[in-house]
Specification:
Elements: E1 9-13, H1 21-30, E2 35-41, E3 60-62, E4 73-76, H2 80-91, E5 96-103, H3 115-125, E6 130-135, H4 146-161, E7 169-175, E8 183-185, E9 192-201, E10 207-216, H5 224-229, E11 233-239, H6 248-254
Parallel strand pairs: 1-2, 1-5, 2-4, 5-6, 6-7, 8-11
Antiparallel strand pairs: 3-4, 7-11, 9-10
Keywords: Cytoplasm, Hydrolase, Metal-binding, Nucleotide-binding
Enzyme class: hydrolase
GO molecular function, one term: 3'-nucleotidase activity
Length: about 260
Amino acid sequence: MSNLPARPKVLIANDDGIFAPGIKALAFAIAEFADVTVVAPDVEQSGVGHGITFRRPLRFKHTKAAGFGDIPAFRVDGTPADCVVLGVNLRGRPDIVVSGINLGPNLGDDLTHSGTVAAAIEGVSLGLPAIAFSQLSGPGGEYAFEESAQYAARLTRQVLECGGLPPRTLLNVNFPPTPFRGVRVTRLSDHRYEDTVLTRQDPEGREYYWVSGTPKAEYADDTDYGAIQDGCVSVTPVRLQLTATDLLERVREFTPDVAVPAER
């Protein structure tokens, strides 16, 4: 029996901003079977990770200029995680949080700084199922979102029909350029960026620094990187359990004691 509500409530966020084409394609695809609310940053917030704004007020503004039609869409002058917090608290608790479709993949270690994945993580931290969607560009840096948005809607619906996801778990989905050659359920790869710090001078002769990263990864067909290299959609279940439980006893063995004050 399906667990899908008649019209499930879906909160959609991203890190590319309210005007990005990927979030619009995703919202229209999911709106075919769900009541969608879009809450996204007012400007691009790529690479901000799971930052939360708490030292200044946030603005939550309805916008029609982004072209979502009848879908309620709100812009926030904060991070992707802020968008999920405000969306859940100001628009009502959804059945699922969906993030993306990001311009560019989020593979391996990218998850630690990805704003796209951070929005999904915030949904998980609020006790909601969540999915993050990202896409690799095609030749010439162009993006075609129709096929990826339709697949994202199908997967979102399937997760809802199955009753959600296990606690503390999200799905990280990466799309290769279309057309797709299949779907693989994968593990995270060792994909990372080798950073280079460039030193330059501004027009007044003062030094400034620019961090530039070169992507690196080893191919393995059971990883997210391997899947998109082979033209397949990668679906990776990610569990937010950071404790290295297999090391607890070992760490206890070498952890020094502290002096305990005598009771008076």
